[in-house]
Amino acid sequence: MRWVNRRVRKGNGFLLGAAPIALLVLAYLVAAAARHEANPNDKILPLPGAMAEAMAALLFRPDPLSGQLLFWADTFASLQRLGFGLGISALSALVVGLVLGVLPPVRATFGPLVTAVAVIPPIALLPILFIAFGLGETAKVALIVVGITPLMIRDIAAHITALPREMLIKAQTLGASSWQLLLRVALPQAMPRLIQSVRLSLGPAWVFLISAEAIASDVGLGYRIFLVRRYLSMDVILPYVAWIALLAVVIDFLLATGSRKLFPWAHGAGH
To answer: Which of 89, 176, 218, 243 fits a 20 to 30 Å CA distance from 49?
Structure first.
C-alpha cells in the first residue's frame, strides 16, 4: 500500500508523534553529558538536575524583593497579556471580517487599507506603541493586536467572500436583509474559521508578546528569559522555553477541541 493511502490509528499516532520528541530529548541528554564530561562547569547545555534546581527556586521560593513565586507570576502576567491580545484581535477580526466579506462596497473601500496594514512588520511599530501608550500593559497588548488582527481580518473576509453565492441568494429570496445575512448566514460560517485563525495566530502572538516583554517589562516569561541570558543561565532559559511551548500546545488543543465540540459540521462530523 502506498504511504499516501495509509491511515494512522489514534494510539499509533500518539506514539509516532512522541518519537521525534523523545529522540530530541535523548540527543540533548547525550550532548549535555558529553559537554559536562569535558567541562563540569559547562553552562550551555545544563543537565536535568541543574535545571530542576534552578527552577525549584523560581517555582517554590518567594522572591526576597517582591515576595512572589517568580515562575507563576511570570506565567500569569504573560497569559493575561496573551489572553487580552487574542480576545481583542478575535473580536475585531470577526466584526470587520464579516462586514468586509458580506458587503462588497465596504470591501472595495477598506480592503486595500487592511492589506497595507497587514504587510507592515509589527515589530517596527513597537517604538511607536511605546511612545503612544507608554511602557505599561497597553503597549504590550497593542503589539499583539496590531501584529495578528489584520491577517485574521483578511482570512475571515476571504472565507466569507468564498461562500457559495447560492446561500446568500436563497436567504435574500426569503426576505433576509443585509443585517440578517450577516448574523444568520455569514456569522455561523465565520465562527469555526475564526477559531482556526486564532490557532494559526498563536505562534506570532507569542513572538510579539515575548518581544514586548523583553524590551519593557518587570515580569513575564519573555522578561525572565532576557533577564537571565546575561548570566548564561540556560538552566532557566531552556525550561522557560519548554514551558512556553507546552502552554502554546495546550491552548491550541483547547481551541481545536472547542471548535470540534461547538461546530462539528465544520469538521466533517457524521461523514
So the answer is: 218
Q: Is 149 exposed, middle or buried (0-12, 13-18, 19+ CB in 10 A)?
A: buried
Q: How many Cβ atoms sit within 10 Å of the Cβ of residue 120?
A: 12
Number of domains in the chain: 2
Tens of pLDDT along 153-187?
999 999 999 988 888 888 888 888 888 888 888 99
* Long-range Cβ contacts of 141-144 (<8 Å, 24+ apart): 141/81, 141/84, 141/85, 141/88, 143/85, 143/208, 143/209, 143/211, 143/212, 144/81, 144/82, 144/84, 144/85, 144/86, 144/89, 144/205, 144/208, 144/209, 144/212
Same-domain status, 208 and 258: yes
Q: What CATH number is attached to the domain comprising 209?
A: 1.10.3720.10
Query: Which domain does 8 fall in, by range?
Result: 1-45
E strand or H helix that includes residue 199: helix 187-215
C-alpha cell of 133? Answer: 501608550
| Residue 205 sits in the same domain as residue 240 | yes
Q: Are residues 9 and 98 in the same domain?
A: no
